[in-house]
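#struct-help
A.M.: can someone run this one for me? Single chain, 423 residues.
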Amino acid sequence: MTAGVVTIQVGSRDLSMGKEPIGPYKLHEKALLSGMLLLIALALLGPARAAGDGFRLVLVSNETATRTGAACLDGSLPGFYYRPGVGALAHKWRVHLRGGGWCFSAADCLARSKTELGTSTVWPARIEDTTNSPFGLMTNESTVNPVMANWSTVFVPYCDGTSYTSKRASPLLVSGQSLWFRGRQNLDALFVTLQGLGLNQADTVILTGTSAGGLATYLHADHVRAYVPQAAQYYAVPDAGLFLNHTNMAGRYAYGEQFQNAYGPNLWDSAGGIPEACLAAHPTDGYKCLIAATAVQYSRTRPFVVNSMADTYQIGAILGLGCDPSRSGSCSTTQLRALQAYRQDMIDTATAIKQYTSGWFLTSCLQHEETCTDRDWAGIDVAGTPMQTAFYHLLSGQSSYLTDGPYPSNPTCAPPGTRHGSC
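D.P.: on it. Structure tokens below:
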């Protein structure tokens, strides 16, 4: 066993076990913004913690992996970084699914299997030694995140390349190496293991994810809910996961085509790893259930949507804009119009699924992922409401639907070149 790495074996658990919840939060905007009450909260929380303080790598056990069928692309054990909560706050949980894109071909998945996005064999024992960023929404720094700093916190590295949708029975042999497409089984193994660490006694659980992990949050929020006590307060907060099936500059729906090609039994075999209700509604075109705006319509969990309408990944990989809007003169009039048309498509998409959500925070910041750093989490605001405050409104039972103006109208966005973390 690698020094500092803990492997936990967990037997079957009663998914309905758990304590009665403490009850809904009674947070009010004036209290959140009051310096006096903030100081009181910080005093009660105790000393500030460093962002990575106390996290340790936990791999699922061989027994759990065998029972669930879990495996990273290369066949290694999936796992997560875990920091237990403090006192009564240990019954409140944040679980974050890291992003990292997808692999859409056998060759692409083979290359991925040799990186931290496809094998756990290269994951360090300490999260501080990785490229992951447990900051922003996930930070344990009480001066930045006074409400959740001492909650039980889980950061899940990503090693299946399919947003946890693949469910292929047999490995795929590529250039003499077996590739395991077991995303859905990984999710099961992870949450069975987390139950053994106390998730089955949680009174509050927040499932978050960014990018491909944000898409996974849309797709699997209901599935994860089954591992959480029925009486617990449960929230889903996908960041940068509302990928649009929008035409590129050449007029093709290239993003959707990639999922269509990878979805079937020749690669991911994802029919068994997407929401059943969505698949029932799309029996011949199930790949459409890999699009967040489609999948969320069949989810009982109402996500709080965080996304930029000028998401740099989307305007590059999906729209194929071909210029840098932050550089004066870089974009033609046609390209700038395409950028604004993409924004309008996201507004129209969000509006169409509004009844299936619990709120949204749509910015015009030129960046991909917005909850990964302290600066973005506490600093970006829309219509005078910071992202952090909008999220606290969610915890208090309030719905906030906040839509930014067009790029570059928001002065609270970070300047070009700012690092936004990797989570």
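A.M.: thanks! The chain has a mean pLDDT of 88.
D.P.: also worth noting: The longest helix spans residues 333-352.
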